[in-house]
């Protein structure tokens, strides 16, 4: 199971870094309250793993039928993870933005996952970079494990941003704190890629 250590690191790092889902949860919880933001929270923690499983199921069929494609997509996925690390280092939180209007509903949040660029590319990268067609575990089982890890990581990330929205906002108030946080998360993503290469 050491093969999945890079996946766990990647999943946790990508789940807690700022993105459309996390920023929206933070803004909504700090403006509308935690209770009003729960439907959005549920839409994320159910919607993202579900999307990942569907994407993974589709890609695994392609990888099994055309094994030569897998290493190519794996390299592309790894490159995107490194690019994502670079973007995280240079990302900022818009502290002047405020959640407006009614809180996001469960259905809106669920379907938003399919148009969330970070979520879509992260899911595709996870499946392509952290599966192995030569592993004794079947591709479907690997996708199930990846989905399970995504469920746990997504819940941890969303929990931090919805229930700790105000705290996170204060902790990352100063640019120095935000930079340190981003550098740590980016370093974890780079580590996950290195573990793939050394595996």
Describe this structure in words.
With 199 residues, the chain is mainly alpha-helical. The protein has one domain. The protein has nine helices and no strands. The longest helix is centred in the N-terminal third of the chain and has 32 residues, at 34-65. It is globular and about 50 Å long. The model has no long low-confidence stretch (mean pLDDT 81).
Descriptors:
199 residues; mainly alpha; 9 helices; globular; 77% helix
Structural class: mainly alpha
**Radius of gyration, Cα only, in angstroms?**
17 Å
Run of helices and strands: HHHHHHHHH
What profile does the largest beta sheet have? none
Beta-strand portion reads under 5%
Overall pLDDT level: 81
* Number of DSSP helical runs: 9
Summarize the amount of helix as a percent range: over 70%
Summarize the structure.
The chain is mostly helical and 199 residues long. The chain contains 9 helices and no strands. It has one domain (2-198).
Write the layout of secondary structure elements.
Blueprint: H1 5-16, H2 20-32, H3 34-65, H4 69-89, H5 106-112, H6 117-129, H7 139-163, H8 165-171, H9 175-198
Helix pairs in contact: 1-7, 1-9, 2-3, 2-7, 2-8, 3-5, 3-6, 3-7, 4-6, 4-9
């Amino acid at each position: 199971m050491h093969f999945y250590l890079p996946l766990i690191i990647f999943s946790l790092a990508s789940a807690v870094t700022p993105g459309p889902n996390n920023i929206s949860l933070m803004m909504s919880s700090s403006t509308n309250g935690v209770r009003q933001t729960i439907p959005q929270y549920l839409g994320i923690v159910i919607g993202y793993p579900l999307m990942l499983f569907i994407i993974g199921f589709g890609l695994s069929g392609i990888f099994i039928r055309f094994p030569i494609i897998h290493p190519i997509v794996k390299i592309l996925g790894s490159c995107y993870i490194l690019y994502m690390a670079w973007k995280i280092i240079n990302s900022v939180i818009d502290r002047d933005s405020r959640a407006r209007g009614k809180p996001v509903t469960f259905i809106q949040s669920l379907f938003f996952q399919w148009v969330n660029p970070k979520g879509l590319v992260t899911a595709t990268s996870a499946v392509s970079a952290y599966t192995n067609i030569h592993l004794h575990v079947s591709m479907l089982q690997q996708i199930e494990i990846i989905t399970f890890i995504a469920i746990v990581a997504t819940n941890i990330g969303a929990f931090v941003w919805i229930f700790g929205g105000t705290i996170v906002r204060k902790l990352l108030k100063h640019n120095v704190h935000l930079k340190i946080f981003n550098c740590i998360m980016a370093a974890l993503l780079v580590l996950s890629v290195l573990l793939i290469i050394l595996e």
